[in-house]
Structure formats: structure tokens, C-alpha cells
Design goal:
Blueprint: H1 2-61, E1 64-67, E2 69-85, E3 89-93, E4 99-102, E5 109-110, E6 115-119, H2 121-145, E7 153-155, E8 160-165, H3 173-180, E9 184-187, E10 191-196, E11 206-210, E12 216-225, E13 228-234, E14 243-247, E15 253-258, E16 260-261, E17 264-267, E18 273-277, E19 284-285, E20 290-295, H4 301-326, E21 329-330, E22 335-340, E23 353-359, E24 363-371, E25 383-387, E26 395-403, E27 415-423, E28 433-450, E29 455-456, E30 461-468, E31 473-485, E32 489-494, E33 501-504, H5 512-519
Antiparallel strand pairs: 1-33, 2-24, 2-28, 3-23, 4-6, 5-22, 6-21, 7-20, 8-9, 8-19, 9-17, 10-13, 10-16, 11-12, 11-14, 12-13, 14-15, 18-20, 22-23, 24-27, 25-26, 25-28, 26-27, 28-32, 29-30, 30-31, 31-32
Length: about 550
């Protein structure tokens, strides 16, 4: 029994020792793996840092120069929008025509001559008869209106004094009225007035008014408001729009301004040509006094209006005849039915009614948003390039047809809209995405430099005109003013002259992919970790806006200027 007990204890101790040995082996393995991973990470970081340093060191050696010279610079206004149909055609039936049935549905394609609607032919005949009667009535009115004419003499209408005559012999009355608002102006109450910003005199006080020729006339304060006075002078002599100076009783100058008619009356007309001026400026006239005589006073306003009504009735009559001839409403073109407005329950034959809308599908448009810095560069009629990738890899040509000057600030950024129109090509559908490029007319003989040579801080733009090879730093910092700019060049409007030289380094961006690719360069030094080959670096250089050769721009350590 004792021997069995000893044998069991020995077995237990042996199993315990083996268990501890296995645990120690696992711990050693974990420590070794962690150490290997740590070593790999250290090697990766060291190799990555060395690659980046080499990349920037290579860039630092690549200091470029550019001689400032005249050139042509262009810019592009770009935007993205969706294709939309344009030039919709509304299909209507004249008043009086009853519709039995409309056949197409929204989205249908129809061809020229295709049946659109079936009509009640008796209603068409009745509408033709009514339209013919209306034409006959209009013809009688037109015949009576042929001899309408205006008076050949324009009178004052009210007693007063003539202060301004705008009309001249040979003037067209309508054009003179449109330009000046009157053929002549009368003063009705005997006064001209002047408003000045001044205080002191009260209503009814006498003042002196000095005319432009130095002569002095008496004035009277009509109104005295806080900070302003209205002064009256006789309309007999002083001229309308004459600049005068007002002084108080002590001789203190109160102010200067132009005279205007205190109570004006415009002499007006609407037809004819001025053949004579029977009044003169500053003359007193009676209500029946002639002011202007006219010739060619035959008026066509009513006559022309009646003719336009007849033209509209003629079109309606021809539409009715076409429906009568065809026995139905037929399509006049190929097109896409965008909507059907006809509703059997609400249709009213007593008025002209639209039954459906067609798109001819000859042109399409794209509306794009334009930044506030570009909107003034756009002009209607400019050519645009349109890319519709879902239709073709080729570009299409369009034209800027509309520019909105109403801003949209709903997104927090000021945007305007512009519409570009193009001929529809096979496969183009409403809603397809289109990219627009509008090339803005450039500046000729502009002093230009590469965009990479231009730097900016919070206060200004600047360039470097020298480079110290020994100190590896840029010098000769010069502030400049810029004009037009594109992806490659920028216009310099001041700060540099033709023949100056700028120093810079081509800007490049170091991306995460660049870093990852450079890190692959250490693969060969870690046997067993990877079987791939080193792919090296995909370019690189410095961060955008940073000149190489000695540090950050703008006066940071190591930089000249």
C-alpha cells in the first residue's frame, strides 16, 4: 500500500513537471514571436523614414527656374448636371371642338402624322362657322380704323410758363416721349424750387439765391424740416436744372443744389413727327396756346391691334380646317409625349384647351452651378464641351444659352446657375449625367509663371527670385498681385517684370500609397516574410505649396527673404 502511494506521488510530480515545462515553452515562443514582430516594425519604420528622407532629399536637389515672359492664359468653368428636354410643344384644340378620345400616354414616342385625338366633327363644323363670323366682324372694324389720326397741334392744356422744351423739329413723338417722358414741361404755380441740407431759417423766412451767372434773386423758405430746407424762387428767369447757392439774411451760405419745377405739367403726345415748335422757353402760355405742331399723325395703334386679332383668328381657322380635313388631331412632328393634360371629366370645349405636351427631341439642356468667382466670366453664346459617358466617350458641343444672376446661398456657398444647350444625339435620355467644360477667353500677352512658383500666406501672394545653393534656401522674396489662373500657370499683374527669374520646385503630394509602396522596398531584407519583389516609389516629392531646398516658405527657419 505504501509502495502504491509512493508510485502515485511520483506520477503526480512527473506530470506537474511536464505541465510546467510546456507552459515555459509557450511563454518562450510568445516572447520570441513578439520580439520578431517588434524587430520587423522597427525595421519598417527605419526603412520608411529613410525612404521618405531620400525622396525629399532628391526633391531638394531639383530646384527649377522660370523666366517671366508674356503668354496666353485660359481658364475653364466646369460643372455637372443632368440632361433635360427643351422646346416642348403644347398640343391644343381650338374652342368649340369636342374631344372623343386621346390615344397617346405619357412616355410614348409618336411620329409625324400619327393619330393623337379623335374629335366630334359636328363640333368642328360649328367652330368653323363661328370663327368665320368673327373674321367678318373684325374686317368691318379694321376698315373703320384705317383712317384714325391724332391732332396735328399739341396745346398747353393749362395756363403756365414753359420751362423746358425737349422736342425738336423732325423728332418722332413716340421716341421723344420714351426718352424724356414729355415733349415740354410747364410751371403752373410760378415757382422753381431747390432743396438743400441746412438748418436755421424758418418757414416763410426770406433768403437770397445766387444764380450760376452770379446774379441774385429773392427766395422764400417754403418748408423747414430737421436738417433740410425747401426754397422757392420765381420761375420767371431762373432755369430748370440751374445750380444755385442759397444764403440766409446775414449772408451765411446755407447750401448749393439744382432748381426744379415746383408744380410741373408735362405736354405729351403719342403719334406723329414734330414739324414746328410754336412756344419758347420761359414764355407764359394760356391753356389753348399751341406748343408743338405735328405731321404724319395718322395713328395705327388700334388698326394694328385689330390686325393682330385677325391673325390669331386666321391661325385658329386654319387649325380647324386641318382638323376637318384630317378628321382628327394628328401629330405635326416626331416627339416624346411628356404629359397628357386631357381629362374627360374636366374638359371644357368652350375655350381653347391643351390636351398633351410633346418634346421634339431635337435639343437637350444641362443646368450647372457656377461659383461666384466664375459667373462674370461666362457669356451667353460661349461654346461648351459636354461629356455624357453613358452615351459616348466622345465629347459633344453645346452653347451657353442662359445665365442666372440670382444667387443660391442655401448651402452656405454662393452659387449661380448657367444653362448649356446641345443637339440631342441618339441614346441621350432625360436624367443622364453630363459634365460641362466652358473655356473662357484668355488673356493675351500676360506675364505668367508656373502655379508651383506661387506661394501664399494670410496676407499676400509671393515668389522667390533667388536661391542660395550653399545654404540650400530660397531668397529674394517678392510680393505679387495675381490675375487669371488655371491648373498650370498664373497671371502676374504686378510685382514682377518680363525677364525676371523665379525659383521653385514642382509641387507633388506624398500619399499613403506612396508610403506603403516605399515600405515594400525592405522586403528583400526580411527573408521568409514575403516572396514579393520591391516595387519602389510611385513618384512623390514635397507637399503642395512647399518650396524645396531648405524648409517652409514664408520666413520659416532656413528660408531667405
Amino acid at each position: 500500500m505504501d509502495e502504491q502511494q509512493r508510485s502515485g506521488e511520483e506520477l503526480f510530480e512527473r506530470l506537474n513537471r511536464e505541465k510546467k515545462q510546456r507552459r515555459r515553452r509557450v511563454v518562450r515562443t510568445v516572447i520570441i514571436v513578439i520580439a520578431v514582430i517588434a524587430a520587423i516594425l522597427v525595421l519598417l519604420v527605419l526603412n520608411l523614414r529613410r525612404s521618405v528622407e531620400q525622396k525629399f532629399a532628391a526633391a531638394e536637389k531639383e530646384v527649377l527656374t522660370y523666366e517671366v515672359k508674356p503668354g496666353t492664359i485660359h481658364t475653364l468653368v466646369t460643372g455637372t448636371g443632368v440632361l433635360e428636354q427643351v422646346d416642348q410643344e403644347e398640343i391644343k384644340v381650338p374652342a368649340g371642338v369636342e374631344i372623343d378620345e386621346v390615344f397617346p400616354e405619357a412616355g410614348d414616342l409618336v411620329t409625324e402624322g400619327e393619330l393623337l385625338a379623335k374629335v366630334d366633327m359636328a363640333s368642328v363644323m360649328s367652330a368653323l362657322s363661328d370663327t368665320q363670323s368673327q373674321l367678318k366682324t373684325l374686317d368691318s372694324k379694321i376698315n373703320s380704323a384705317k383712317d384714325d389720326s391724332a391732332s396735328t397741334t399739341l396745346t398747353a392744356g393749362v395756363s403756365g410758363r414753359v420751362k423746358k422744351i425737349y422736342a425738336e423739329v423732325g423728332d418722332d413723338v413716340g421716341l421723344c416721349m420714351a426718352e424724356n417722358g414729355a415733349l415740354a414741361l410747364l410751371s403752373l404755380d410760378g415757382y422753381l424750387a431747390v432743396d438743400i441740407e441746412a438748418e436755421g431759417p424758418a418757414r416763410g423766412d426770406a433768403v437770397t439765391v445766387t444764380r450760376a451767372d452770379g446774379s441774385v434773386v429773392s427766395g422764400l423758405v417754403e418748408q423747414a424740416r430737421k436738417g433740410s430746407l425747401t426754397v422757392l424762387v420765381s420761375d420767371d428767369g431762373p432755369l430748370m436744372d440751374e445750380e444755385v447757392t442759397v444764403s440766409d439774411a446775414s449772408g451765411k451760405v446755407l447750401g448749393t443744389d439744382k432748381l426744379y419745377i415746383h408744380s410741373p405739367l408735362a405736354v405729351t403726345g403719342y403719334a406723329g413727327t414734330v414739324s414746328g415748335i410754336t412756344a419758347r422757353e420761359n414764355a407764359k402760355v394760356m391753356s389753348t396756346s399751341g406748343i408743338v405742331t405735328l405731321t404724319d399723325t395718322k395713328t395705327s395703334a388700334n388698326y394694328d391691334a385689330l390686325l393682330r386679332q385677325r391673325e390669331e383668328l386666321e391661325e385658329t381657322f386654319l387649325e380647324l380646317l386641318t382638323i376637318y380635313r384630317d378628321g382628327a388631331v394628328l401629330s405635326k412632328m416626331d416627339g416624346l409625349v411628356s404629359s397628357v393634360e386631357y381629362d374627360e371629366d374636366t374638359f371644357n370645349s368652350a375655350v381653347e384647351t391643351q390636351i398633351l405636351t410633346l418634346y421634339p427631341q431635337k435639343q437637350m439642356s444641362v443646368t450647372i452651378s457656377v461659383d461666384e468667382t466664375d459667373i462674370l466670366s461666362l457669356k451667353e453664346g460661349q461654346e461648351a464641351e459636354i461629356e455624357v459617358s453613358s452615351v459616348s466617350e466622345d465629347t459633344f458641343t453645346g452653347t451657353v444659352t442662359e445665365i442666372s444672376k440670382v444667387a443660391d446661398t442655401s448651402t452656405g456657398v454662393t452659387q449661380y446657375s448657367a444653362e448649356v444647350t446641345l443637339d440631342r444625339e441618339e441614346g441621350m435620355l432625360s436624367g443622364m449625367t453630363a459634365n460641362i467644360n466652358v473655356r473662357i477667353e484668355g488673356t493675351e500677352n500676360a506675364l505668367i509663371i508656373p502655379v508651383d512658383a506661387l506661394h501664399q500666406n494670410s496676407a499676400s501672394y509671393y515668389v522667390y527670385t533667388a536661391y542660395n545653393n550653399e545654404a540650400h534656401r530660397y531668397e529674394g522674396r517678392v510680393e505679387v498681385t495675381i490675375g487669371m489662373q488655371n491648373d498650370d500657370f498664373v497671371e502676374i499683374t504686378s510685382g514682377l517684370q518680363e525677364g525676371d527669374t523665379v525659383y521653385y520646385t514642382e509641387s507633388q503630394s506624398l500619399t499613403i500609397m506612396d508610403m506603403f509602396t516605399m515600405a515594400q522596398g525592405m522586403n528583400g531584407g526580411m527573408g521568409g516574410m514575403s516572396s514579393g519583389k520591391s516595387s519602389g516609389s510611385r513618384g512623390g516629392g514635397q507637399m503642395p505649396g512647399m518650396p524645396s531646398g531648405g524648409g517652409m516658405p514664408g520666413g520659416m527657419p532656413g528660408m531667405g527673404g
